[in-house]
Description:
Number of helices: 10
Order of helices and strands: EEEHEEEEEEHEEEHHEHEHEEHEHEHEHE
Shape: globular
Largest sheet: 7 strands, mixed
Distance between the termini: 30 Å
Strand content: 15-25%
Amino acid sequence: xxxxxxxxxxxxxxxxxxxxxxxxxxxxxxxxxxxxxVLVEIAAVGVCGSDTHYLLHGRIGPHVVREPLVLGHEASxxxxxxxxxxxxxRVGERVSLEPGVPCGTCPTCRSxxxxxxxxxxxxxxPPVDGSMQQHVAIHASMAHxxxxxxxxxxxxxxxxxxVGIWACRRAEVALGDRVLxxxxxxxxxxxxxxxxxxxxxxxxxxxxxQRRAVAAALGLxxxxxxxxxxxxxxGPVEVLLECSGHPSAVASGLEALAPAGxxxxxxxxxxxxxxxxxxxxxxxxxxTGTFRYAGTWPTAVALAASGAVVLDALPxxxxxxxxxxxxxxxGRDDPGLVKALVVxxxxxxxPDAPxPDAPxPGTSxPGTSxPGTPSAGTSSSTPGQPPSPxxxxxxPGQPPSPxxxxxxxxxxxx
Length: 414
């Protein structure tokens, strides 16, 4: 560890998942950055559907919580110390964390598809601890510098933004493409903005009026699947970005594709889904999945810094570290909330305080931190408005509820 770490405390606080439904704040030693690593003081951590699923079920597929685990993989912060081989000038740098560290030597890593590395060490995937704590040590190359134009809250949201970027790359979204995004949860809203930034004509479909309202406030065209009649859907489109994970949304989205259309399945609601095989065959539709991301952070930083993708104006709510349990379930209780974040430096609100009302589209809900570094005790702000349509350029979530066409709280596969 470098001499620059002299001011770093010896212990820190961490929100630890001890078992199903059991999360508590514990005192732990501050990790020492190793060779090629930096130590980051965490500013904000976004809640993903996978975090909530671990809390409620203790597992996602083969990934089982068998010992205490720190959740969270959407993080931003500030470098406070560096390990051997890292430039000491990085101390003080504001960063967004890419939460997966690949081996760098296997065939998939060498091909540039390091997201598929079989030796990947990914935050908050058992048994690897995540970022819902005051300090994290991570490989220096995965701590991406962010400019002042990107707030700490927005920097934490570069991870789900990267999921949207990767989905658009997998779909080869191009200028003039007609793109249908099914599911207006965090990833869907961000993927839609990335597609628009690529010059596509985008429509967002979701059964939840609160989520459609958020999409409309971002200047995106919206579609209510409940109002569909025969021949009156959102198609034909060249690209489907399926971000809900719901089987009926997959089926209707594929049906909306034009001949030679391209579909990327981003949302995950179950292990199996039926597809209209005749449509895939007769129209020569291409269908692929997507898993995390690779090489997306520079693009994510540029999109956020330029305002081409809106992050700070999304309905978000921040929670103190002591309120991590509430943060992990906030999305279920507030359908208008796009992202809950844990801010270790934020003072805890009163346990008896009433729950905030659902936020208005494009604004923060009560209890939301202001853009930038949230200060302790600060609870509300008024973020800027999202751009109008003519001025904007541009792993696994919880299973969907029965009867829903899309699943707003289903998130990425990270």
